[in-house]
């Protein structure tokens, strides 16, 4: 499924050949993100991602870059997370060389033109405004800030208006020079990649100096003795809430039980959360669970947009479902259904060249190496009801829960009481 080559300087080439695939996905991924930022440079990882599209020495303008990808009918984009940044192009297999040439040029030779930089500040400030004006989006940041405090994971990926406006060319070069180094870079080739692309990657990325990078900044999770309730009060017809507990690090031995645990509780329209919160009680239009795992910590959280008159009942219902997952064994039929759901979703995600190579890159850079689909399926199928109960006991401590809410709410105690901690 995957083939890995590590270059002498530490950069990795991960290939995911797909026989008969007519397209190829070329990805340059870096094991760095907002977690790596200094507080005064908040948002620089995301800002740098934007600037990679603004021009290189060979392609001086954003239009030069986009025209070249448009000229092969390709799709290209990028994303920044807390521990991972990636740039990708998906195109016809015959044009993989062009995709690699453009991506390599962007990542290694972007100009960071001062005038373009100042113009892009306005774009990102408006992006911040867009998120801030959307309660469903911003409630997750309220939660992260309450759970992780001022540690890097607790700060917004996009930064603040102040840190974005303060960024200079030197800020970018300092961040990239520290973190965009070969040992943190992996180039992914998924789908119908020409074998000659591997040699092209060697030539382009193999000459980079192999200087080591610093360790990731430590995540110091503030001690939580009692449930934390963080409210951002604003007008609206709905309250958006996130109720979260502890989670597991990315490479934790219980990663497969954790995935099945999440599938039972929050995976799909027949999950416990969707059934109880929406279908039976009509408390929310949307409700879902999400496990955010990082190198050294994690958090499991449930998010919902709920009826203002029944926020307390929504919190109580979600808390009860979390508690059930830590105290009552999951039945055989429900366990089997969750496994089938998880395997099916995994298979669907790996059918696309970009989905397959991103799966491998995440495992290679953020966990303990890539794995074949067969190993993933075996890991899921091996999960027992006892495993799920153990995971629940590990993470569900409602006396250490964090509840974030955005909406016309004022009283934290009114939301703390339904937790029953």
What's the shape? globular
CATH architecture of the largest domain: 2-Layer Sandwich
The CATH homologous superfamily of the largest domain: Metalloenzyme, LuxS/M16 peptidase-like
Structural class designation: alpha+beta
Strand content: 15-25%
CATH fold title of the largest domain? Cytochrome Bc1 Complex, Chain A, domain 1
Helix/strand order:
EEEHHEEHHHHHEHEEHHEEHHHHHEH
Q: Counting H and I runs of at least 4 residues, what is the number of helices?
A: 16
Describe this structure in words.
There is one protein chain. The protein has 421 residues and is an alpha+beta fold. It folds into two domains: 3-205, Cytochrome Bc1 Complex, Chain A, domain 1; 228-419, Metalloenzyme, LuxS/M16 peptidase-like (Cytochrome Bc1 Complex, Chain A, domain 1), CATH 3.30.830.10. The chain is 44% helix and 19% strand. A hairpin with a 5-residue loop joins strand 1 and strand 2 (12-17). The mean pLDDT is 96.
Record the SSE blueprint.
Layout: E1 3-6, E2 12-17, E3 23-30, H1 44-51, H2 62-70, E4 75-80, E5 85-92, H3 96-109, H4 114-132, H5 135-148, H6 161-166, H7 169-179, E6 185-191, H8 196-205, E7 228-233, E8 238-246, H9 255-266, H10 272-280, E9 284-293, E10 298-307, H11 311-327, H12 332-350, H13 353-366, H14 373-381, H15 385-395, E11 402-407, H16 412-416
Parallel strand pairs: 2-6, 7-11
Antiparallel strand pairs: 1-2, 3-5, 3-6, 4-5, 8-10, 8-11, 9-10
Helix pairs in contact: 1-7, 3-8, 9-12, 9-15, 10-11, 11-15, 12-14
């Amino acid at each position: 499924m995957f083939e890995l080559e590590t270059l002498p300087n530490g950069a990795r080439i991960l290939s995911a050949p797909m026989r008969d695939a007519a397209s190829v996905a070329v990805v340059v991924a870096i094991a760095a993100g907002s977690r790596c930022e200094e507080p005064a440079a908040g948002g620089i990882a995301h800002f740098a991602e934007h600037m990679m599209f603004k021009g290189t020495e060979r392609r001086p303008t954003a239009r030069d870059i986009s025209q070249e990808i448009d000229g092969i009918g390709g799709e290209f984009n990028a994303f920044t997370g807390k521990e991972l940044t990636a740039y990708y192009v998906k195109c016809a297999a015959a044009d993989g060389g062009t995709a690699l040439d453009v991506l390599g040029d962007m990542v290694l030779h972007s100009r960071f033109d001062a005038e373009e930089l100042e113009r892009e500040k306005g774009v990102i400030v408006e992006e911040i405004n867009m998120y801030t004006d959307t309660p469903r989006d911003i409630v997750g940041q309220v939660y992260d800030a309450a759970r992780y405090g001022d540690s890097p994971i607790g700060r917004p990926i996009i930064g603040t208006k102040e840190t974005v406006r303060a960024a200079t060319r030197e800020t970018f070069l300092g961040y990239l020079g520290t973190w965009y180094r070969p040992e943190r870079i992996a180039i992914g080739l998924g789908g119908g990649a020409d074998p000659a692309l591997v040699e092209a990657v060697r030539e382009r990325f193999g000459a980079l100096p192999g200087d080591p990078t610093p360790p990731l900044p430590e995540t110091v999770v503030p001690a939580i003795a009692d449930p934390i309730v963080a409210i951002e009060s604003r007008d609206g017809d709905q309250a958006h809430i996130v109720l979260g507990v502890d989670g597991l690090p990315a490479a934790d031995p219980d990663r497969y039980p954790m995935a099945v645990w999440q599938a039972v509780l929050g995976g799909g329209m027949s999950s416990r959360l969707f059934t109880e919160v929406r279908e039976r009680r009509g408390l929310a239009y949307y409700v879902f669970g999400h496990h955010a795992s990082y190198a050294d910590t994690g958090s499991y959280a449930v998010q919902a947009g709920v009826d203002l008159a029944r926020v307390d009942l929504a919190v109580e219902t979600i808390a009860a479902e979390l508690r059930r997952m830590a105290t009552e064994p999951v039945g055989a039929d429900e366990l089997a259904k969750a496994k089938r759901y998880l395997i099916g979703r995994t298979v669907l995600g790996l059918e696309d060249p970009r989905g397959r190579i991103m799966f491998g890159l995440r495992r290679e850079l953020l966990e303990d190496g890539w794995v074949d689909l067969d190993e993933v399926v075996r890991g899921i199928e091996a999960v027992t009801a006892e495993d799920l109960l153990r995971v629940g006991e590990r993470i569900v401590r409602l006396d250490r829960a964090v509840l974030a809410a955005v909406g016309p709410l004022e009283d934290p105690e009114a939301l703390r009481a339904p937790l029953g901690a």
